[in-house]
Input
Amino acid sequence: MKHIKTISLGATALLLAGAQIAAAQTIAITGGKVFPVSGPPIENGTVVISGGKIVAVGANVAIPAGAQRIDATGKWVTPGLVNGNTQLGLSEVGAVQGTNDASPRGKDEIAAAFRVWEGLNTTSALFAPARDEGITSVMVLPQGGLIWGQAAVIKLVPGMISDMLVKGPIAMVAQVGSPQRGGAGARGELIMRLRELFEDTRSFQRNRAAFERAETRNYSASRKDLEAMIPVLEGQLPLIVSTDKSSDIDAALMLAREYGLKIIIGGGSEAWMVADKLAAAHVPVMTGAMNNIPGDFASLGTRQDNLALLRRAGVQVIIIGNSGNGDEETFNVRNIRQEAGNAVSYGMTWDDALRAVTLAPAEIFGFAGRVGSLAAGRDADVVVWSGDPFEFTSRAEHVFVAGREYLEPNRQELLTQRYKTLPPKGQR
Amino acid sequence: MRVLSVLALTTVAACASVKPASTTSPTPATSASRDTTPPASPRGGISSPNADPFPSTYTPWPSRATVIRNVTLLTAAGPTIRNGSILLRDGKIAEVGATVNAPADAIVIDGTGKYVTPGIIDTHSHIGAGGAPGGQGTQTNDVNEATNPVTAHVWIEHSVWPQDAQFPRTLQGGVTTIQVLPGSANLIGGRSAVLKVVPSRTVQGMKFPGAKYGLKMACGENPKRVYASRGPSTRMGNVAGYRTAWIQAEAYRRRWDKWLADKKGDPPGRDLGLETLAEVLRGNILVHNHCYRADEMAQMIDISHEFGYSIRSFHHGVEAYKIADILAKEGISGSLWADWGAFKVEAIDGIKANIALVDKAGARAIVHSDDASGEQRLNQEAAKAMEAGIEAGIPVTEDMAIKWLTINAAWALGLENKIGSLEVGKNADVVLWSADPFSVYSKPEKVWVDGAMLFDRNDPANNWRTDFELGYVPVMGRIN
Output
């Protein structure tokens, strides 16, 4: 929550003011400890924003005349955080089916053509609480059976999907951890079905004309799904393979080698057990930092220093929320900060943890040209924190998304204000 | 030497006044009686209720006098003591203050830069009953007896698997006492169990001696969803269900109390469910009521008035902040999440300032988990709730927030005179933290239960491993 809002809980006034700092304005954030992520920290650094972009970052930066200055002395300045595994805008109220749009029906558990952002609820009341705690971009992932569909990265700005979309697709999403969910009876059957899909995709690609004349054999997936799989098979579109079990990860690595796929492991509770293989194959892992319960027989090796062990082996990591304690709920996309702090507490370096919630997802999924670091030319997604962003006692005092701050109270703040004095005004 | 005086906890008047004037209590509160005389076996043998058919067999582990010095103590009973000391002896907190008189043979631990708190207490756990590993086919989930809307006859302790690998992880999170509750599928879900988080072959070996039982009740969406086809299928059906059960319970209590007073003729027939409900009406079992919405909590309060029982704690209470003044007046605590919401419609008004607002109104606020992962990091949940309060303009201090994790939860379990604060004479359930427990970087280094050190992060070889973990779960060594 932003400083300005909370100083004057007379939020009605703020509401009336509309209170958006104009996007085109030039802003200089001065005196803070600046973490560009793409380079070393800068004490007493300056970040200049103009036209929604970062125009300069450094210790000795000339501040343009007329720039609005924000004194960040004693503050920490980072890129806006990126949560790499959310259903934000896809699941508003978990138990209400009509507000859940992450899980396609697909055909035989395959929904490769499903583009999850095309049905995204751009008026979600959960964007603002996430943004107010410094999350400026989120990856939105489908959920489903075997091939779940295509993921995107969106920016938490008001507007329609065309305003929010940073990049889509950024990945295809699949799972090999649960035969039940994948419409199979055994783990190996999931691998077999993926192999069948890749071979059908290849055949389809080579025999498209024959397919149009209905002169090919039957394929295991629909035309649209086969089309959508082509960039995956060509190694152009990354494939997120979700599983916890070390042997599943190993199977996925072999499949990736066999077909020349670019894969990323999602979940990966036991990834530390195959860390060397992951490092050798340059395969990144998306996992959480609060997992230590052997929650099922496929994740008995779950341990809380998984991230640290992976980093030590040289594996690229993205910190996500997946410990089952509510941090994967759309309500708590903001808790990626807590995950990062716990990662540090369990052996990861602080710099690595910051990278794992900013630049790492951007580099791995190919949107680092816009998001994830403080460098000239990047989108002005900048957060001024009162202290260490991973600490509970720190708050995001200023959150710029594409150079703009959003100061209207969010739904949760409106409720807080209404009930701060009991009985609330207008009710008994 | 500074010794903290025992904080007098007064029972809120509104709470006491609704208790029936019960003269004969045939079933004294469980093991409290075991310290004196065992309950007399009434004539009639098994046809009469036995207060404590599954008695606690817990005894404290061997301990040595231990002093922690140069440490910051969050006492939950007064202001933070900086650079202070605590002496644990014979299973109790013997001294707390700027300095203590350490016996010559005491283990002395330097706590420079570290913090000591009371053992954390979770009023809402399902571990043991919802065991790990879970998932399809494991048959380890024994939380909800979802076969009837009223299952007052079930006791969650009969579902608890002491070899659940979640127990040692909870202890390693600094949690020393938990209330395991039946689930929320039913209007009345059954009896809770208050457990010490200690290794044991049996659940009896974990039961907190002298702790009262709790009764789990649940409002709102869950029961009406689970029983949609047979009823209740609406919130009004839910309320009719509670009232019907209490009408039966009151008649049962009268029948039994009369027979126990005069012992004339055959004893009335026993009914396990009504026996539990009658004990609630006598004030011997504490009501723990899962309820999200403010308006429903207000209705549950009226039901408690109608039948003369007290609600000890509303659990989850996502909208508790809307009626925090009423909770304060009624003397009902709120067992709450720091930041859960929106997973169902009755949770959409969840706010992060809930706990702080309930505290501000004068009600007892508690951080609970309802989750095996969150339970290990309740200190982090409290830190989030503290900061949310501050951001909402409520001046929450660490001295307030530590109570959300300890003494307030102890009160909800009726154990405020035994645990929940660093005060002389209380059980030596104590956690040594590597840093301020409200920091994300802080971890429990050592955990004592009744003065015995049962977890030491620096000594992984001696850490508790359940039977299940042997050969299944890799030995992790020291996890940072």
Remarks:
- The radius of gyration of chain A is 23 Å.
- The longest helix of chain A spans residues 187-206.
- Chain A touches chain B through 56 residues (CB under 8 Å).
